[in-house]
Every structure is written in C-alpha cells, then in structure tokens.
Please model this.
Amino acid sequence: MKRLKFSNIIIYLFLSVYALLYVLPFLWMISVSLKTNAEVFINPFQLPKVFQWNNYYVAWNSGKLGIATLNSIIVCVITLLASMLIGSMASFAIARMRWKLSKPAMAYFLTGMMIPVHCVLIPLFIQFSKLNLTNQLLGLILPYITFSLPITIFIMTNFFRGLSSELFEAACIDGCSIYRCFFHIALPLAKTGLFVTGLMTFVNNWNELLMAMVFISDVQKKTLPVTLTYFVGPYATNYVQMFAAIVIAIAPSILIYCCFSNQIVDGLTQGAIKG
Amino acid sequence: MIKRKITALVLIAVMSFSLLTGCGKKSSDTSTDNTDGVVEIKWMFWDDLTATEDLMSKGYAEVIERFNEQYAGRYHCTPITTNLEEYDTKLNALVAANNCPDVFICNPGPNLTQYVESGTAKDLTDILKKKESKWYDSFTEGIFERMTYDGKIYAVPTNFAAALVFYNTEIFEKAGATIPTTFTEWIATCEKIQGAGYTPISCSAGTAWCLSMIAGYLCDRAGGPDNLIGVNAGTVDWTSESFLNAGEKLVELSKYFQKTAAGDSNDQATASFYNGEAAMLVQGSWAIGQINGNNPEMEPKCGVFSFPAIEGGADPNRMIVKTDNLVMSSKTKYEDACIALMKCFTDETAQKYTAEVGGKIPIIKVDYDKEKAPAQLSYVMDILTKSTGTLGFYNESLASVEAGDTFDNSMVDLFLGSISVKEAFQNVQEFYQEHVWKK
Amino acid sequence: MDKIFRNKLAIILFISPALLLFTAILLIPICQTFYYSLCDWNALTSPKFVAFDNFKRLFIKDKIMRTALKNSLFFMLFSAITQQILGLILAGILTNIKRGRNLFKNIYYLPAVLSSAALGLLWSFLFNPKMGINQILAFLGVEGPLWLMDTKGFIVLPMWVIAFVALWQYTGTTMMLYMAQISGVSKSLYEASYIDGASKFKSFFTITLPLIKPMIATTLSLNCIGSLKFFDLVYNMTQGGPNHRTDVLATHLYNEGFQYFKYGYANAIGVVLLLMCFLITVVINRSIKIKNYEM
Model:
C-alpha cells in the first residue's frame, strides 16, 4: 500500500511538471495580449504594467472578428457534420461489408492524406473559379470536407474493424437491415472514435489558413485564421492586438473541445476501464 | 432516440447544403457592370486596410474612400487584401484563373518583371505619354526608370522610400561621437559608442533583408553601379575584388551589432533603436512612422545620415530606394476607371499625406507642409537632393526573386560566421553560373 | 447474414458520396499535379512540356533538396519514435489514474486544438535570444545557444528545436487516439488478469499493448505522413532558414512554387513527397500486419 502511494506521487509529479510545459506558454500569450507593443520588447515576461483591455476591443472591431467567427462556425460545423456522416458511411462499407474492391477503395482514400495541399491549390482554384465557387463559403466547405475524409475514414475504419462481429451477427439474425446495423449498432458503438475524429476535423478546419486566404476575397466571407493575419503589416507587426485576436480565436476551439472531451470521457467510463 | 438525432443531423446538413448552393448562384465575377451602371473594379493590396497600423496603408484606405466618393454613381473600387506573405500566392492564383484584379500593387525588380513578361501587366506608355500627358508630367523626373522595360512603362509609382542610417543624437552626444562619412570613421564612432555602454548598431539577421540591405549598400559603396549592372549582364564575377571587399567590411561592421542580432526580428531591431538601447539603425524611411508612433520622444532626438563611403571605393552619394507601384491588368475591361483610380493615388491630396503623415517620399512635385511632416523626413529629403543616383534593394535588383534570396541567405551565413567571405560570394557566383548566365 | 453484408445497393449508397467528392476535388487536381510536374510552368503563362527535366534537376543538381530530404527523414523518424512512446505512456498512465485524468488529458491535448501558426509564433518568441529561454539561462549564468539560427552539425540545432515543438504539439493527438482505443478493450480481460495476480504495469504489456496493435499502425502512419508533409511550424519558426538549413520537403515546395514561381518544379517535389508517403504507409501496414499473424 505504501509503495503504491509513493509511485502515485511520482506519477502525479511527472504529470504536473509536464502539464506546466503546456499551461505556461498560454498564460504568457494572454499576458502579452494585455501589453503595449513597446512593452512586449522591453519586458516580455513581466506582467503588464497597465492591463490594456483595449487591445481586445480594438482587435475585435478592426479585425472584424465577429463576422469572421460566424463564418468560421458555419464552415466548420457543416464540414464537421458532413465529413463525419460521409466518412463513417464509407468506413463502414470498407470495414464491415464484403466486396471485392474494398481494399483498393481504402488505398484510394488514403492517398488523399498524402497530398500536400500546396500542390493542388492552383489547379483547384482554377477549377473552382470556372464553377463560380470561389469567394463563397461553399467553395471552402467542399474542399474542407474532402480533405477531412481521408483521416476520418482511416480512423473510423479502424474502429469499425475493432467491433466484435458477434454483435452484428446477432443483429442480423434478429432481422436487422444493413442500414439499421449501421445507424443503430455501428455508429453508437464507435462513438468515441467519432468524437476523436470530429475533434480533429473541426480543429484542422478551424485553423486552416492557406485555402481560406486564396479562395475568399470578400471581406464579409473571410474566416478567422485569415483575419488573424491582418495584424501582420508589411513593415511591422502589431503583436499585442494579434495575440488578443488569437486569444479570441482559440476560445471557441477550447469551448468545443471541452464539450467533446467530456463525451469522450463518458465513452471511456461507460466502456471498459475503471480506475 | 438516436435515430431521431441522426435524422435531425442529416436534415440539417442537407438543408444547409442547399441553402449554400442557393446563395452560391449569386456570386459575382471579378469586375462587373452592376445594374445601376456603376463600374466595379478590384484593387489588390498586401495589408488589411482597417486593422493596419501602418500609416501608408491607412493612407491608401483614405484614397479608396475618396475615389468611391468622388466617382459615386460611376465607378466603385473594392479592395482585395491579404497579408504580405500570401500576397503573391493569391495574386498568381487569381491570374492563373483568369481573374486578375484590375489594379494591383507590386514590388519593383524581378517581381514586376515576371508580370511584364507573362503579359499580365498592361503597357501604360501610350496612356501616360499621349492621352494623359499632363498626369505624366506631374511625376518627379526619372521616377519611371525601374518600371520601364524596352522603353515601355508598365507601372505607376505611389511613393518611395530611401534607406539610410538613423541615429540617436542623445547617445551620440553622451559618447562624444560624430557623424561618420567614411567607413573607418564609422568604425571609430562605433568604438566610442560601445565604450559609452550602448549598442552601436541595431540590425536584424533574423529578417534576412535587413542585413542584406547593409550588405547591398556596402557592395555599392565598394564597386558602384558597375557591380550590379555587371553581374546581371554577366561581365562581373561575384567573386571579384570589390564584392569581397564589401564582404570583409560587413564582417567588420557586424562586430558592432547588438549581441542578439542573429536571432532578432526586424521589429525587435527597430524596437531596440526607438527604446534607446542602440545608437544607430540602418533602415528604410518607412521606419519613421514606426519609430515616432511607438516612442514619440524619439522624434526630436532622431537624426539621419547617409550611408558612409568606403575609402578607395565608389561614389558615396548613391541611395537605396524602393517604390510601391501600381500595375494595371492587361485584361481589365474598365481602363478609364483604373486610370481614375491610379490618378487618385498620385494626386496632390494623396501625395501630401504620403509626406506629412506616412513619412514616405512623394513621387510628384508637391509642396507639402514641412511643419506637419515628421522631423526625420526633411533630413531624408536633404540627403536625397544631394544624392547622385539611386539603386534598388540589392535583393530586388538581381536577376530573379530566387537570386535575391540567394544573396540574402549568403550574407546571413557570412554574418553567422559559418562560411568565409569567399565562400559566401562563391555561393552566389555558383547560382548565377547555373541559373542566370547560362541563358 | 452474409447476404446482408454483400448488399450491393447499400455498398454503393455508403461509399458513393465520399467517392464522388474525392474524385471531383482531389483526383482531378492530382492528375493535373502529375502533368505539371513534367512541365516548366510559372502559373502565369501556359505550361511548357519538358518531360523529366524537373526530376533530373531535383535529384542531381538541387542541393537544397538534399537538405530538405535529410531534414524530412530526420523529422519523420524523430516524431514517429518520440510521439509513439510518449503518447502511449501518457495514455497508459492516464487511463490508470483515478483523479485528475480529465484535467491532465485536456491540458495535454490543448495545443493540438490551436493553430500551428499561432503556436509557431509563440515558440519563436520563446526561443528568441532576447526574449525567452536564453534570458532565463543568462539569469543562471549560462550563455544559451542560438536556438533558431545555429548552423553547426549534421542535423542543425534549429531542426531539433522544431522537432521538439512538434512533439509538444502533437503528442496529445496520439495520446487521445490511444486512449480512445484502450477504452474499447473489454473490462473483463483486465479483471481476469488482476485475479491472476498481474500488476497494472504487467497487464498493460500483456493485454493493452497487443490489443491496440491496429491503432499502432494507424497512429504510426498518421505520424509519419504528418511529419513528411510538415509545414506550418517550420514556416512560422524559421522559414527554412538560416540559409535553407531547416528546409523540409514541404517548405522547399512552397518556396519553389510560391516564392520563385517555379510551379512545375514545385509539383515535381510534390510528386516525390506523395510517393514517399505512399511507400511509408505500405511499409508500416505490411510490417505490422505480419506481426499480427504471428500472434
């Protein structure tokens, strides 16, 4: 019993020290966002002398963060829902259904993960501007879904494969249709997987800059990562307001993340391991 | 329960999809005739017009506003903005998709050359010299030199900036230092300032072009205009005597940079000057706004002198300058609107702003209010009137963007001490042998 | 039973939305990429076919390509090994502790939620000689190295620094995936082993590890492909400098394509990158599958 306590202390100590590595940079980021530009260069690590709350106000207004946040939410939520649905459908077909081409199909989807986005940027842009899809949110949503699919399919296939086949067999004997099998048995069981991939998809798209920058010109349709670059000027960078904007921009990420992570914990406790 | 949830999700997804596709139909082309007869043109720029702190960008925002007011009902200009890093990427994508903005801003040198050679930029010679000769005459003489290819003008400048040495008069006084005119004197000045406990020169090697600007000046002071003309024509080697001399001088001078120069960014280097830690800063005149804006107390004690001469070198009165230029797309349907916009950028109101607020140098002959303009600008103008010639930034005067980068990177390597002077210029020489001179 | 899982209509219904999107948005541009990699093209004028010239130049003459290859491979090996080990250890510990599991997991995953651009900027501040770690070292009387500008060694210091930051940022993802997979392991298995007298430590090796093997293949491929394609942090921390010493394949591609407008050449690098990713995935999946059969 005593030995166990000692090892517990070591474990918690390790976890806490490691956690500090993660927390400190963020605290620093917040402290910078409350300084003046000159102050940042003189004492980067001290607390600000006067808290410049105004930075947030200015960043919100001049960065037009309101409309940008709305756009980002629209784009990311639609992408999230669509890619999870489409992706898990395809993964289910690949992982559990029996057909000849399932392996090639998997390989085909996986290539998507290997493509550097810079390579397809210009061909895709030319194609989209012919279809009149540039400069609107749909023109971002479609590629975002597509680029999220490989990783969704990759991870979800794994989850579906890991489910025990007895479950499905039993369901089939009960006269379950394949659609019921998917929506009522497979999806709920792979909930943890869905949340993890959903989180990854959301985060990736929430932070995507290059495509958003090139595809959208209209100020009213820009997404958050694009507006963050507003503070980088040609000859000088406005650090404090940029950091304020970054703090504003990551808040929804963290919020969404907390909602999702609780779900994952539910999954964990409902599932297998306890303490 | 779950079924209902999922059906709801699917419904939401489908509905939002159709909603978006519905909205999509209304999308517009780059430039369009609106139903009410207003001509819509696009202007592309590398800084956001509302969030920016840059005084020049703010001036541009005013120009656009004024244009839209003045021509209300006839023309309307919508700016497309990105940040500097993604500017070229986006512009090229737009050009490739046949969607080029009607007017866009462009750096001189290889960047402009590229748009000229690909036929993206419109030849403005006829318009400037015949149709609008009055406008053409308003410009300062010789300002079109770097925008002229085979006698044809492809761009219109909006302002220009000159690079020189800013210095802190207070530190100079305390250290008993005087303004140097030659390199030897400059080193002596640095010694004195170091002795007084200050950093002599603030420079950034983390931002390569800042160091390269000093290197470019030294190359020009050592060999004059022949150096630049020579290497681009293939008649002078990068390993020739005067380049090596410049390299040695750079190494010598870099001993007086702040200790952290290797990692400091441009913003940091400028900050340590306006915070009074360093005595000198080699920068373009665009830094004036940044210096005065961040530390207003600096304005009265900030002096300016011309980059010192190298003994036995070339003409010491040449200056590095850089213009911002407007290029008109060769595919634009609304030439008149574009010209009207370009005129707005170069009229008296805009140019007065350039000098009085922006701290940059006007490109037309204009009488601005010297009282209003930052103090440093008049020093810059004084030096400029004495100058015997101008040159572009070295990295923007070489054969290609890549050649400029090779030069910048070799200078950074030299500064870091990882290669010798000879090796540094040998690098550039090799690049030229392979990519430039062979053609 | 078998019949149901061979339902052709269902398969088509399940797979076609993904397939259609994929083909329209990725396949067509990729084919164009392959074609452009054989062209001299600056995206402004029309492409000129030059056959394999780009590839020849890439492998014979391009010195930066060699550095980029070296750095990318280093980065891949480093990330794969460290992220796997650290991710697995953290997942193992966190699933086994009683209190604070949620808190620690949330903290470790935090940076994966944020944009690499912002984090790159933050870390470049911290490794900046004037502002960050070096100030703390100077306080202790040690002169810190030039973290992001050092030029010595086969793998330069800045590359190690970037690899460390990447480890910091992405371990959370690997950990999360492992935790999700471990949660799928049936509770009764552990209970049985505890009754047999196995310690938690031992049951981790005998039960958890073998059962999450498929996830090892997944995370390993994700790590490797992710680090071969790695761009954001390098671009935001060093931009490939000093003098291209920290260039990786993706930044080299970006420079050639979007700074120097050699779009055809950049696409050739893209093709090389794609083939490398493909090769790695095949190798990983092959080797891990073989082990599965051995079991």
In short: The two ends of chain B are 72 Å apart (CA to CA). Residues 11-32 of chain B have pLDDT under 50 and may be disordered. Chain B touches chain C at residues 88-89, 92-93, 95-96, 114-115, 117-120, 205-206, 208, 259-260, 262-265, 268, 400-402, 405, 409-410, 412-413, 416, 418, 434 (CB under 8 Å).
